[in-house]
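ok here's 3-methyl-2-oxobutanoate hydroxymethyltransferase, seq below lol
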Amino acid sequence: HRRVRIRDLHTAKEHGERWPMLTSYDQYTAIIFDEAGIPVLLVGDSASNNVFGYDTTLPVTVDDLLPLVRAVVRSTQRALVIADLPFGSFEASAEQALGTAVRFMKAGAQAVKLEGGRRVAPQVEALTGAGIPVMAHIGFTPQHEHTLGGYRVQGRGSDGDRLVHDAICLAEAGAFAVVLEMVPSEVAKRITGELRIPTVGIGAGPNCDAQVLVWQDMAGLRGGKLPRFVKQYADMRTVLNDAVAHYADEVRTGQFPTDAHSFE
Ligand code: KIV
Ligand code: NA
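and the structure came out like this:
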């Protein structure tokens, strides 16, 4: 069982085979998703919201994410593990991006992901040149939510051309794939057709080469109103709610522990 490689993802596109990607931030989800055959796992900066309890992805740091990357790498045998470069760790220069990416690669990641359009092409080129595969990420980029004016679909109308051009620039800079987040299906379809590298959709319609979701959204662990692009495949929040209520009740009423859980 060797690890999935970038080559395999490019071959999949050539053969018209779609692949699923999920976030993972810890041992057990990494083991379960790896055993399920998810070929690509992302240690996303969405850990900011989904692990560390912040409102946005902005506060999470490289030092926060490194131990999560190590955990996911240690817990997988087959999946390609991608580390997300957090806000503030790569924008200033290609040198800054390289310094950050090297830290993640030394932690065992096999690729990194970074947000932004053609402005970050120099970063993509520097990393790729140094032997670090880069997944790009355009459309709605959560690290830019304050300039984008919140969670909004990007690339509507004539703005679609800008996204197509960004995708081409990033592919030419050496990106091995590009995430398209919250873009109209038609734009995603255009980009998918124009590029030889795979597109990974999230809120980008049914015509991308791959799909990604945050695992807590996919598995129904997160409460509240879900974005339109999420499909919930389980109701883990209810499962855990029921389990914890049952446990608390049995402790309070003396039904647990019994002799069966005790030592003589
Ligand atoms: O951090 C993240 O979870 C992501 C994916 C949603 C693409 O960037
Ligand atoms: Na991210």
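fwiw Residues 44-46, 84 surround sodium ion (ligand 2) (CB under 6 Å). kinda neat tbh
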